Amino acid sequence: MRLKLYRTLRTHIMARGRYQKSDVSRERILDAATELFATRGYAGAGVDRLAERSGIAKTAIYYHFGNKEGLLAAVLERTATQWIEGIRQASRQAGDPLGRLDRALAGMREMLEERPWIYKLFQILTLEVADEKPEIRATLQGIVRRARQAITDGMRESLGVDVPDADGVSGLLLAALDGISLGLQIEPERVALDQVFADLRRVTSFLVAIRLNPDLARVFDNPADQLALLRQPAPAQESNDGRNDDVDR
User: Fold this and answer.
1) Which of 100, 144, 163, 240 has fewest C-beta within 10 Å?
2) What is the pTM of this model?
């Protein structure tokens, strides 16, 4: 009886050890594949290179993911989960609507600065394989829909009301983030993130405001009113002693 119990326990411990090692090797493969897909693209991330970078045998890659496309799908799913959960966490924090918007934008900025490969991965795969591989295109479309829904849910929870065309606002915000990411890759010295995100805050607030207040939207849809605003002179700047600079001159 004791011998049988010992053998059962030993088998369980050995099996658990194998499962843990399997999980570790799977994560190492995903880490290496994410880096290679984001830097070399789909074609440049060969299985031999993946095995070398991860330190895991090619047979293990096929065991876990079936083929290279299965590996790409797993990379996209894990990356999307991290990205979208970051959006949800930032937009769900307590506070007034503007405070929550500030924290949401701060979270998005943090992802751009600390995890730029998230945006780069989606961009390079969209350009390289989305048209040739319908299943990858469908995966990317699903990721974007989930991200838009996360932002839309954040607006609803923050304001306590449904924002008309909230999905449109979410789409514009994601497009702006995509553009910022490209700018950081091409000419990072010209991307002043403090100013960019201050402008993005103004634009997002404005888009939500005109959807909640149709009368405000009509003012900005009137060409005459638009021209009047564009021609409005900027207020005079005051010097350090509180006097108008024009008076000093």
Assistant:
1) 240
2) 0.77
| Residue 7 shares a structural domain with residue 61 | yes
Q: From residue 18, how far is each of 12, 22, 24, 51, 60 by CA, in Å?
A: 10, 6, 10, 20, 13
Does 119 lie in the same domain as 190? yes
Return phi, psi of residue 131, to 5°.
-75, -30
Contacts (Cβ under 8 Å, ≥6 apart) of 76? 121, 125, 136, 139, 140, 143
Asked if residues 139 and 146 have their Cβ atoms less than 8 Å apart, the reply is no
pLDDT digits (tens, 9 = 90+) for 141-183: 999 999 999 999 989 988 889 999 999 999 999 999 999 999 9
C-alpha distances in Å from residue 111, one per residue of 5, 22, 97, 184: 51, 29, 21, 12
Beta pairing partners, 243: none
Asked if residue 9 and residue 131 are part of one domain, the reply reads no
* Residue 7 domain-assigned (yes or no): yes
The predicted-structure confidence for 24-83, as pLDDT tens digits, reads as follows: 889 999 999 999 999 888 888 889 999 999 899 999 999 999 998 899 989 999 999 988
Q: Is residue 49 located within the same domain as residue 150?
A: no
Ramachandran assignment for 13, one of left (phi > 0), alpha (psi -120 to 50 degrees), beta (any other): alpha
d(CA 53, CA 40): 13
| SS3 at position 244 | strand
